[in-house]
Amino acid sequence: MAYGFVLDDYASFSAWRPLARQSFLAGCAPEEIEWRGTSEETTLFDTPLASPPPARAGAQPPVLRSQCHALLRSILRHADKTRFALAYRILWRAQTEPALASIATDPDIARALRMHQQVRKDVHKMTAFVRFREHGSAQAGRRSFYAWFEPDHYILPSVAPFFARRFVDMDWVILTPKGSLAWNGDTCAFSPVPCAKPKLSDTIEQLWQTYYVSTFNPARIKTKAMLSEMPRKYWKNLPETTLIPRMLAEADARVTAMAAQAPRPAPAFHHKLQQRRSATAPAVQEEPAPPQHSGKFIASPPSDVSL
Amino acid sequence: MKQSLSDRLALLSDAAKYDASCSSSGAGKRDSAATKGLGSVSNGICHAYTPDGRCISLLKILLTNFCIYDCAYCINRSSSNVPRARFTPDEVIWLTLEFYRRNYIEGLFLSSGIIRSSDDTMSQMVHVARELRQTHNFRGYIHLKTIPNASPALLAEAGLYADRLSINVEMPTEQGLAAYAPQKHASEIRHSMGEMRTHIEAGKDRTLTGRKPPRFAPGGQSTQMIVGADAATDRDILSSSSSLYTGYRLRRVYYSAFSPIPDASAILPVKAPPLLREHRLYQADWLFRFYGFQFSEITAARPDGMLDLELDPKLAWALANRALFPLDLNRAPKEMLLRVPGLGVRSVQAILSARSHRQLRLEDLVRLNVSIRKVKPFLYATGWTPGRLAERQNLRELFLPQPQQLSLF
């Protein structure tokens, strides 16, 4: 029989902490403890897990520096099955190497930092790519919105404050395969129950698509830059990305047409403006010539600024 | 013919897209938890990317593309035949709020063609910002373009509501501006920037009793220069940037490679500059802002004043100053590590904190996502000594990108 624990997917630092502490006080080395997730399938060969023995006499509780503590908090939101074991190994090693977390070249820390970056990126992309769609009409002055998003990691509790502090005056629900968030103006409720993708539509999306197409400059195609920031895995849930193939297909023709266009005579109001200007401002003083022509646009700091 | 809202959105966002500024950060943190309204600001989020590689962070539109100015590089100049349109302030407010609620944007970047007078145009833009803040309780990001010559009272009010203000210098040299934008004057633009700098700095100070002054654009001011429309070299452009950053305390200078526009003016060059040139200018800008370089160092070794298109400016600088290398990975000061091609600000920070506990080997850098191939000629470390760079004859060839077969099409 092996020592170990079964933790659910959303087990956070605070759920893991007492178990890690118990194992540490019992003197169990990282390789003696097995950390399993509830969503992992158990096989016939898996041995049942037992709690570690009681604490050894005189054992000191583990201590972590704040940098290490923050790192463990972050990586326990990662979807990697080995996160609990890695966190325990870092906890174990940090007792004899207190500065461990600041050594980014250490293999364990390098891996933890990579996981930390992935979690951070997932959080950031969720704040960027969630798209709310309005549902029904306003009830008691509050409008309601739904969104569907597919995060890679267990980040819903971490992003909840962002959405709850930004979209305060409307009701909203964010559904994901890893649970949901719902806001009603007072509280933000989190549920770990997986959701199915809802069917939603919103007429404003047409205006958004109009904006997306118009703000694109066909004369500078940089699809690699676009893909590195907005990888294809996000495309299926974004209302604007369906237009990309057409935008790219038409770009060349638009640029050629711009280049081929012969200069046309200016419109009538341009001539009127020119006439009015020459009538009001008699020639010469168009240029308030600087004392000496330095060539630089700005030669020296402005004299009218108190330094 | 009446234009629908969608038609006008298409026209007025198409007309605004040549302004490269997109930042929605630098204004501190705030949210709507206490005000029960809508919107928050923190580090800036890019909500979408278009195939031109640029991000969409703000709803970037013009109030109107009618303009009494005739600047040759601009799609909205009075002599252009583009269709004209205008939004009412209420339409801009509605679009901003509806887009924001759906999490498409971080806020609004409002600019405008100049109609009637500077003050008239500016007051309409300030009206939009005031309504958003006061009537609609909007706490998202607002970036307003400042119209040259607008009255100080309007400027002060704009700073009260906006997170960032900007005015474009457009051309890197005064001659360029005179040739392409006959109605704009460098001295006026300079004056507006100086005034904004004074306001922004006053807005950050506290009085003797510790009271806060009225808010003024906490995100600072930025500007944009058009690259490749006139004959200015990269050295001219970067020395303008240098005085803009130091003399006017700008937060950002944007470089916008002159891009073909519909119904272009006959005096513009036919061929657009390579996008790579714009990229190199941004790299040089980064070296100045984050790596402790001076602009003059970056262009010092370039006889024609243009940045090397084949090598990035940091590598080009290192090759020109090869006598300073190789450096000891375990002992070199931070300022010098930042100058090693292939090391970024983050990896330098990681090296500094790791090496105070352990001796570093070159292989350790792999775990910091540093390319060993790039850095190894410039560093020595425990177990690694590079050949002497200064003695290599074909130095430049070593670092040039692999030749590529030309496209047949």
Automatic annotation (TrEMBL), chain A:
Coiled coil: none annotated. It comes from the Bacteria. Residues 82-240 form the DUF4130 domain. Residues 270-307 are annotated as: Disordered. This is TIGR03915 family putative DNA repair protein. The lineage of its organism: Bacteria, Pseudomonadati, Pseudomonadota, Alphaproteobacteria, Acetobacterales.
TrEMBL record, chain B:
The lineage of its organism: Bacteria, Pseudomonadati, Pseudomonadota, Alphaproteobacteria, Acetobacterales. It comes from Acetobacter farinalis. This is DNA modification/repair radical SAM protein. Its cofactor is [4Fe-4S] cluster. Keywords: Iron, Iron-sulfur, Metal-binding, S-adenosyl-L-methionine. Residues 57-284 form the Elp3/MiaA/NifB-like radical SAM core domain. It holds the Pfam family Radical_SAM. It comes from the Bacteria. InterPro entries: Aldolase_TIM, DNA_rSAM_put, Elp3/MiaA/NifB-like_rSAM, Endo/Exo/Phosphatase_dom_1, rSAM, rSAM_sf, RuvA_2-like. PANTHER family: ENDONUCLEASE/EXONUCLEASE/PHOSPHATASE FAMILY DOMAIN-CONTAINING PROTEIN 1, TYPE II SECRETION SYSTEM PROTEIN K.
